[in-house]
Amino acid sequence: QVQLVESGGHLVQDGGSLRLSCVGSGVTFSTFDMSWYRQAPGKERELVAIIFSSGGSAEYADFVKGRFTISRDNTNTISLQMNSLKPEDTAVYYCNAKRHALSPKYDLNFWGQGTQVTVSS
Known about the structure:
The structure is a single chain. By secondary structure, this protein is an all-beta fold. Helices cover 0% and strands 53% of the residues. It is built from no helices and eleven strands. The strands form two sheets. Strands 2, 4, 5, 6, 9, 10 and 11 form a seven-stranded mixed beta sheet that branches. A four-stranded antiparallel beta sheet has the order 1-3-8-7, with no helix packed on it. β5 (46-51) and β6 (58-60) form a beta hairpin. The N and C termini lie far apart (40 Å). 28% of the residues are buried.
């Protein structure tokens, strides 16, 4: 059974830092693009950062550039270092693993259960 388990969410003050981790099991994630999404109450889930399986490059949403850093710690673990947190960063943060196939119907896409990050003002 494939699982992604996030941890590290917490209550933190405005300007603080947190480090989220996502550990995968059940499959080797070396060929998966790994990413962090977040969803705030009443809002749609949005992409925060992604690290690509090929080359290890990363991309970030504009609203976290310069503050958040995604890393692949090992084959099945990624992290999200979040600095200079703001109240608007409050959300449930989800880990995602996706592997693209030649045909989209064979894509593999897995989600974790989420971890709550709350930034108080």
